[in-house]
Write a structure and sequence with these properties.
This protein is an alpha/beta fold. Helices cover 20% and strands 21% of the residues. Strand 9 and strand 10 form a beta hairpin. The chain is globular, with a radius of gyration of 23 Å. Bound molecules: zinc ion. Zinc ion binds next to helix 8. This is Zinc metalloproteinase.
């Protein structure tokens, strides 16, 4: 806002020295040469363009662009932290991460002998909170933090406490390392990992939802974004022609040893809470900057998530070795794992519940499919908190289920960040399914067993319904 005001003043002929934003002030204080940093980022942007410039990649992109199903113009444009941050991103890493001087040095340390290759894993410069296995993060608020915004913060912290071994407590005078929630900010951002001393999670207007706060807090735990993983080229192609000029560096790729051991065994997940949405930093906001590769095109509209997925949660539990301390190892059914928050039970993937993940959730709606059927699924308005509902469809053994989403109403959104219908066709429900929130793509989805999940989630002020055609195949 300040910079816009200055632009306006400049246009009217009133000259003002451009004051540094708080973030730039902090970086300068740390001894970061901002001119050099911006030059380095420009160079990274040029390298990214080069990375995707090969004839083969451009041919693949041309096909993906031609096949892309553009949403109609009447969709409601949603904003994520990337859009909220706007021009701020010139001093941030991957759009919403505040790096320290040491972290920037690692992130930008190119290998002079290998084109497009950085030498050091940024993750080696990310410190974890302590003690490992049961970390406790002291937190506080900046002076004047609005009382009415605190429940969103608390809900986000409780969300993580309920599924990991990370615990939070209000900071005392003697705490050295503290996460401070700051509302006086032009955007949403966080440091990555434990920086040492006071570190802020910046939440300006547009950042106050559990979706955004939990995402930023995940960065404070030590996570980066999924689309920067070293193996991302197996899954996505970045369309640099549609990225706003100077923002290309946000799509940089981590060196191959990111995550130390094979990304902690976590598969690449389009529907992760830490994945960019498909139109991140787009010039033409009706077209993607990230295309799913041909083998994964059904995930095109399903990048990022309203809440941490099973694997997003598992990553935090692995980063902090949450279950290593559990004396009794527990056997979990249906791909569940020992719960990072409670050694005596399993953490279950979607559609499963109970101590050992062998029961269906009480709240789920069960539908036995004995013949072809058209159903209407509904979730109520989620004004103060996200409302969700899970439908579990079961066909006779030996049969599979084909689903076609024929309509979604009442409103259509540009991305499925806060409202949507997700169809999970795999028996392994750790994996995210395919999401719908705008004009439905009529491509049939077929289950790989006699089970299918339909998950509806809604943070909006209106209920959401969808018509789905179910066929036994
Ligand atoms: Zn982020």
């Amino acid at each position: 806002m300040v910079s816009r005001l200055l632009c306006l003043l400049a246009l009217t002929g009133i000259c003002l020295a451009s004051p540094l934003g708080d973030l730039e002030k902090e970086l300068k204080k740390e001894g970061v040469d901002l001119v050099k940093l911006h030059e380095e980022l420009k160079h990274e942007s040029e390298e990214l363009e080069e990375e995707f410039s090969s004839k083969d990649t451009q041919n693949q992109l041309a096909k993906l662009r031609a096949a892309y199903h553009t949403c109609s113009n009447d969709t409601i444009q949603e904003k994520t932290e990337l859009e909220v941050n706007g021009d701020l991103t010139k001093d941030l890493f991957e759009g919403d991460i505040v790096l320290t001087k040491e972290q920037w040095a690692r992130a930008l340390d190119r290998d002079p002998n290998v084109t497009l290759q950085r030498r050091q894993a940024l993750t080696d410069a990310i410190k974890m909170w302590t003690p490992m296995g049961a970390p406790i993060i002291p937190y506080s608020y900046v002076d004047g933090f609005p009382e009415d915004k605190k429940p969103v913060i608390i809900a986000s912290l409780k969300f993580w406490e309920g599924r990991t071994c990370v615990k939070f407590r209000e900071a005392t005078e003697t705490d050295k390392n503290v996460v401070v929630f700051n509302h006086i900010s032009p955007g949403c951002s966080s440091s990555v990992g434990m920086v040492g001393g006071k570190q802020t999670v910046n939440l300006g207007s547009g950042c106050f939802s559990v979706t955004v706060v939990a995402h930023e807090v995940s960065h404070a735990f030590g996570t980066l974004h999924v689309q920067s993983r070293s193996d991302r080229d197996n899954y996505i192609i970045v369309d640099t022609a549609n990225i706003q000029q100077g923002k290309e560096h946000n799509f940089m790729k981590d060196p191959p040893y990111y995550g130390k051991i094979d990304n902690y065994g976590i598969p690449y997940e389009f529907g992760s809470m830490q994945h960019y949405h498909e139109k991140a930093f787009a010039i033409d906001t009706t077209k993607p900057t990230i295309y799913a590769k041909p083998a994964f095109t059904q995930y095109q509209g399903s990048m990022e998530a309203p809440r941490a997925s099973f694997y997003d949660t598992l990553l935090i539990n692995k980063l902090y070795k949450c279950t290593d301390k559990c004396q009794n190892k527990i056997t979990c059914q249906n791909n569940g794992v020992q719960d990072g928050a409670d050694c005596n039970k399993c953490f279950c993937p979607k559609g499963w519940a109970g101590t050992n993940c062998d029961m269906r959730p009480d709240s789920a709606i069960m539908i036995k499919l004995i013949s072809n059927q058209n159903i209407t699924v509904t979730v109520e308005a989620g004004t103060d908190e996200m409302k969700e509902i899970l439908y579990i469809i079961e066909a006779p053994v030996g049969k599979k289920i084909q689903a076609v989403v024929t309509s979604i109403y009442r409103f259509m959104y540009s991305m499925c960040r806060t409202v949507g219908v997700e169809i999970v066709p795999s028996k392994d429900t750790r994996v995210n399914g395919f999401r719908f929130c705008g004009k439905p793509d009529a491509t049939p989805i077929v289950s790989d067993s006699n089970q299918m999940l339909i998950w509806l989630y809604n943070e909006k002020a209106n209920p959401l319904s969808a018509d789905i055609q179910l066929t036994l195949v």
